[in-house]
Amino acid sequence: MATTSGQVNIVKIDSISYADADLVAGVIPTVLTTLTGLIKDGTVNPDFPEPSVTSEYDEVNQSVYRVRRGAVQNKVAIQLVTSRASELTKFWGKELVAGTAGTTPDKIKLGRSAAVNKYIKITGKNIEGKTVTLELLNAMPISSWSGAMGEQSETVGVTVNFYLLQSADGSGDEAYLSPAF
Fold first, then answer.
1. Distance between CA atoms of 37 and 89, rounded to whole angstroms?
2. Stated pTM of the model
3. CA 150, CA 153: separation in Å to the nearest integer?
4. Which of 82, 143, 144, 178 would you call most buried, defined as having the most Cβ atoms within 10 angstroms of its Cβ?
């Protein structure tokens, strides 16, 4: 197999698209919704940590005969700075109570909600200006919203942490990174 990959660093986010994850068949959705809100520069943060390692030693020779790898929780955090309430709630995993035009505003229920796992596709450019994609196959959204609000403060964005789970197709895969070539 020939290697066709290039630089993997994403330095500019072009789009973030999503759909509900197919937890039965494990099929990647073909119809995606693209976020239209602003993703603040530097606020898409993948976290694929190194697992802890435990070495087992031979008692006589004191040499390692087995290494066990610990489990890790992979996640990607995305902070949205401006989005429409109707769009944000679908991505964020919150419930929207629609208001009446001209009389009552929409309301977003910020308490607990039944989050629906998502398929997320992040598309951006690498340092060479070529397209790179990161696909999260089955990600559970957990959100937070905190920070100082005021005229002199930066806009407080909604941070959605997508905790990666195995895809439903039985492969055990959590995410795909497709570098440009």
1. 12
2. 0.76
3. 5
4. 143
